[in-house]
Amino acid sequence: MTAAIAEKGTSAPLAPDGPATPPVRRRRRERAFDEVPRWQIYLPLGLYLLFTLVPFYWMLLFALRPAGSTSLVPWPMTFDHFDKVWNARSFSVFFQNSALVGVCTLICTTLVALAGGYALARFNFRLKQTFMLALLCSQFIPGALMLVPLFQIFKNLQMINSLGSVVIAETVFQLPLSVILISGFIRNVPYSLEEAAWVDGCSRFQAFRIVVLPMLRPGLIAVASFAFVNSWNHFLFALMFLMEQDKQTIPVGLSTLIGADSVDFGALAAGGVISAVPVVIVFAFIQKWLITGFSAGAVKG
Amino acid sequence: MKISRTYRARTVTAVSLSAVLALTATACGDDGSGGSGSEGSGKGEITLWDNNTGERREIWAQIIKDFEKENPDIKVKYVGIPIDQVQAKYDTAIDGGGLPDVGGVGTAYLSNLVVRDVLDPVGDRVQDGALKGKLVPALVDSVKAAGGRGDEMYSVPTSTNNGTLWYRSDMFADAGLEPPATWSTFYEAAEKLTKPGSNQFGYTIRGGAGSIAPAMDAMYGQSGITSFWDGDKTTVNDPRNVAALEKYVALYKKVTPSADVNNDFIKMVAQFDNGSIGMLTHNLASYQDHVKALGPEKFKGLPYPAQENGTRVQVSNPVDGLGLFKGGKNKAAAWKLIEFAASHKSNSAWNESAGSIPANTDAATDGWVRKAVPTATAMKALSDGTTKIVNLPYYLPDWNTISKSGNEPNFQKVLLGDMTAKEFADKLAKELNEAQAEWKEQTKS
User: Could you tell me if A131 and A203 are in contact, meaning their C-beta atoms sit under 8 angstroms apart?
Assistant: First the structure.
């Protein structure tokens, strides 16, 4: 994509001492855009931001204000709810388990998607189109439908009550989309670059590692973050495959805070904050590549 | 481009993979207890599934600690299951394996487990053990009825609940209103406490998940009909019940917030505890939430309103209990845990924590029951002969579907005016009659 943009850029006629002067009509349009009052941009964006942040503020409010308070600001502030969920309700353990499941799913999904995506992008084999179709179709199968077969498979493999079962199940369900996405990215990397690397003495794997892999960064980040966030939030597999309290994950822990007839909103909100923070941090760091990754994969894939 | 792979390499890979799968698939663990379904040695590890972990985890931890202290050879593995997932968890474990030794079982899904033959009958064990004569007879009858196998019981009852009309006593006092003891005072108070201008409403109606049981309470409570069945036909769509339902749903928007159409108990309780709502119909279990949010002085609880002649009719509440699973490897140890949990001390502590009505007769007379006014009032109402209970057909395997996903959306339609109360009641009655006929056919053989 970068190469394509560069070529397009250099094709425009250049003046001897700098870029060509834009046509008058284009300049007027740009000026008109520059002259849009700032409030017309910031007001809608601000309203949208408010709409997005109010639920999060509400969660923070319930998490930080004392039980029974109806104050609209978290003052006096208390961390009792966090203390309760983190220590008494074992969220410290759930957090570690969720992090482990998330990171392992991320690694497994990315590695397998890279291999599968490379095969789909670079090789022609029988039933390739059918395979692609099957990958797409697998997206329509809800996880709940596969629960009993998966349960039996993991039981036979003696993997029930092991975080490994959740990692495998999550990876399997993440893979179709990830493989398709990565194969789109790999297709965008000119094959001639790899061939040039081979001519220079690289093996296929070296050429992939040195030439192709660095160009896949946006795609890899998109796939990895998607895998992490989805597995972090996923509830069903963890609930069904994990039988012990100290193996469970954050979404299951959150669900256990709601009783049949009573609910501790402070604890629930504190659990929600603990659950949301890693996801927010992940997105804050990767948003730049994430947008590039999704748009590039979507358009060129 | 071609992938080259030798035939030998493929064979080696396939054989290796098959070997690994075969080895892992045939390996089996042994914890030293008996085989599946045996009494076992009465020692070792057993698994307990708590069907409503919520706020109960701490009290269960204490009970398990006490149990393990008294039975040092038994270790209990506690697994808390979220209440809204408990049936799915049981269903998956029935189909895929992995049921616990002991599990919390409510009457709402007891028959489903009995029909699938995964629970051991416990009647003889109760008669031969320490629980003989120690369980409240009405609750024993409820679990027997819910099991649907005549006089046999498939769970040991531990607690029940009672529908409660929570009201803001401070708002009632300010408005000069009497406590809503009858249906007429209830409707009058709902209207007088409603001030839409200041966002104050007299009542909050349950329009979302779990709406059918409160609606039935309002129907039977006002109509005075005391039996759910008239022969093989349900009385749900009796004209008196339909008229009562029309009056009840007319409260929506008139004296309730319009958002109530989506109210589940969480939203409903949150509105009552944080907003300006005069009355809420829920059950005893939300008592602690109200205390935490409002303090003990601003609210009070009454049993559901009575008719003008003082007679109160209400629908039966689910009874919670502990089931002994048939496939357990150590049923002797599992039964010890059930007996311990249903004993006076444990049952009392558990119900005090949960704000429920104890199933152990000794626990039911403990001091905390008398001090917890709403619980004591509910127990008095249930035992003083003024309250008639309409037994809901929990024994129908389809009961949960019919009373939840099958008809809750229709109740929302009634609130929104897209369906009449009669159409709603007729559809509900049709499904119930069919389920009853099917159940009778099945149990005949």
Answer: no
